[in-house]
Amino acid sequence: MIKIAVASENEKVTEHFGHCVNFNIFEALNNQIVKSESIPNPGHKPGFLPNFLNDRGVNVVISGGMGGGAVDIFNEKGIEVIVGASGNAKAAAEAYLQGTLKSTGSVCHEHQHHDECGE
Fold first, then answer.
1. Which residues contact 69 (CB under 8 A, 6 or more apart)?
2. pLDDT reported for residue 49
3. CB-count exposure of residue 105 (10 Å: 0-12, 13-18, 19+)
4. I want to staple 63 with a disulfide (CB 3.0 to 4.6 A). Which of 17, 75, 81, 107 is the partner?
5. What's the rounded Cα separation, in Å, for the pair 51 and 115?
6. Is the dihedral of CA 14, 20, 22, 23 positive or negative?
7. Across-strand partners of 89?
8. 3-class secondary structure for 20-82?
9. Handedness of CA 68, 44, 40, 15 (dihedral sign)
10. Which Pfam families does the protein's record reference (predicted)?
């Protein structure tokens, strides 16, 4: 079983991980999604969301963009990070399972450069 969290605005992948509206959590078995749930973003505090998702057993996180600090924490916990995704959250999770969703590596380094994060 693999658990994928997609940082979303309702059903769409969000541009900025920390400011997403909700996380769509997909559970997959043999590369097929067998369960999905949406949980509201509990709040954006540095270092909080990676631990929150880790506690929920998430293996993979998909987002449009993400700050380097969050990426580092996910990496420390062995959670795979895919950034540069867009469109429908479930479609992004399915593309990941099929091996067709690749991370662009677009990490937001500086919060001053808002336009680079698509905010």
1. 46, 47
2. 94
3. exposed
4. 17
5. 27
6. positive
7. none
8. CCEEEEEEEECCEEEEEEEEECCCCCCCHHHHHHHHCCCCEEEECEEEHHHHHHHHHCCCEEE
9. negative
10. Nitro_FeMo-Co (PF02579)
Which tokens go with 25? 């959590």
List 5's β-bridge partners, or say none.
25, 61
pLDDT digits (tens, 9 = 90+) for 28-39: 999 999 999 999
**How would residue 46 be classed by pLDDT, with cut points 50, 70 and 90?**
confident
Phi, psi at 71, each rounded to 5°? -55, -45
Q: How far apart are CA 59 and CA 51, in angstroms?
A: 12
Rounded-to-integer distance, Cα 91 and Cα 108, Å: 24
Q: Pairing between strand 32-40 and 12-13? A: unpaired
